[in-house]
Design brief:
Blueprint (H helix, E strand, L loop, with lengths): L2 E6 L5 H13 L3 E6 L18 E9 L2 E2 L1 H7 L8 E8 L7 H11 L3 E9 L18 H19 L26 E2 L8 H5 L21 H5 L5 E2 L3 H10 L8 E3 L1
Parallel strand pairs: 1-2, 1-3, 3-5, 5-6
Antiparallel strand pairs: 3-4, 6-9, 7-8
Helix pairs in contact: 1-4
The structure holds flavin mononucleotide.
């Protein structure tokens, strides 16, 4: 196996970081990244996967399920029995049915899901005052990702084609959506357009104003703003932050 694909949706970059550490652990140098976070990268032109490659799929957990924009595009990648690894990133609360959902998509689409894992990334709801899993993935998470990469290569070299058994329920828990909200723009906004360029669903106009009906509440605009000019002020979010910060530290779970 001399080529690896990293296929992911990652509005705040935690999924991207962990996938590259897993790739590092495999030692495979020919890496093709298919980052479909932005809408222009979901035009169907990047769906072809070489036959003899290892594929790592990654997406964030939203409300205990796969983020829905990610799930919809992931369903379009068709495989020919290539070994695949399913990775979900969550914000130290719980990943519930997200990993089994990703594994099901990948296997139904013709890949062989030989491994799966749930890693922890800084919760998107983190702000200056309330830190939830801040700084993660950290060095210990990265070591676990590298170790997973090594184990994947060992499993492939041993011609072991057993599918990974991952936790989760079928039917999956009902999809819940976030209450409709969009970040407010503060007086420090310069209309530089960085938030618009980084919005995964094209929900921001030329004046940096968000469209509530399109917003997926991913926080990409807030995290990417160099002027700290965007903020989510919904009272429900403030309550959620207070509760999420109480969760004890979770560790990566590897299934191989
Ligand atoms: C709308 C929304 C819902 C989320 N739901 C969960 C959840 O159910 N459990 C959890 O632990 N983290 C949850 N998170 C946190 C993300 O899974 C976490 O921040 C993840 O690292 C984001 O991945 P990314 O950096 O690749 O975008 C949620 C985040 C958002 C924005």
């Amino acid at each position: 196996m001399d080529k690896i694909y990293l296929i992911y949706f990652s509005p705040t970059a935690n999924t991207k970081k962990i996938l590259s550490k897993i790739a590092e652990g495999t030692g495979i140098e020919n890496i093709q990244e298919i980052d479909f976070t932005l809408p222009q990268n979901r035009d169907g032109s990047n769906l072809n996967i070489d036959k003899d490659a290892l594929v790592i799929f990654g997406a964030p957990v939203y409300m205990g399920r796969l983020q829905s924009t990610a799930a919809a595009y992931l369903k379009q990648f068709k495989g020919n029995g290539q070994p695949a690894v399913c990775i979900v990133l969550y914000g130290n609360r719980a990943f519930e049915d997200a990993l089994i959902e990703l594994t099901d998509i990948v296997s139904e689409n013709g890949f062989l899901p030989i491994a799966g894992a749930a890693f922890i990334g800084e919760h998107s709801f983190t702000d200056d005052k309330v830190k939830i899993a801040a700084g993660r993935p950290d060095s210990s998470d990265n070591e676990a990702a590298i170790e997973l990469g090594e184990k994947i290569v060992a499993k492939i070299n041993a011609n072991d084609t057993t599918s990974a058994k991952v936790p989760g329920n079928r039917p999956y828990k009902n999809s819940k959506t976030m209450p409709k909200m969009t970040p407010v723009k503060k007086s420090t906004c310069t209309n530089c357009g960085i938030c618009k360029a980084n919005c995964p669903v094209g929900a921001i106009d030329d004046n940096s104003v968000g469209d509530k009906s399109k917003c997926i509440v991913c926080f990409a605009c807030i995290k990417n703003c160099p002027y700290g000019a965007r903020e989510m002020r919904n009272p429900l979010l403030l309550l959620a932050r207070k509760s999420l910060v109480k969760n004890p530290r979770k560790e990566p779970e590897l299934y191989i």
